[in-house]
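Exercise: predict the fold of this chain.
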Amino acid sequence: MLVIMERIILKLIGIQMDLMQPLHECMNTKIVYKDRIPLSGSHRPLWPVYGEYIYLPPQRWLHSLEHGAAVFLYHPCADKEQIELLKQLARNCLRKHIITPYNKLQRSRPFAIVTWGCRLTMERLTDDAVYDAVTFIKVVYIRCFIFITQCAYLGVLEIFKFFNCYQCF
């Protein structure tokens, strides 16, 4: 029942989910993603330290998503002031975040927030877009809460240790 409620809530607010089973692939295995911005799937076994990177490939940041982080992406050619706003949003909202440039973003929508199975892309970081971003982050962590509630109902609370949810207020 909770899974159905979760999907209804996400559909109502316009968040598309595309979940693939996470597989840890070593460096000798090439990983190819079907989507321009992957939301789940195979990735490297070691996840990165949370924070900002000059560049971090999706094979690394996807593992952070699996563990409850949000990844803040920006196109390297985006407006520098807008990039700084995105970075401030990440730093001020979440402890578990990755910030990295990503040249596969469309130039018409050069900013994205990615979580396991969900993404929000933005044209500019206007007040409305920042509000949408904060709402997106909150909804994602509501999804996390629903998942944890499902685990409690099923008696598998040990899964909770993998989901350290922080809210953005």
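Check your answer against the key: Residues 127-154 form the longest helix (28 residues).
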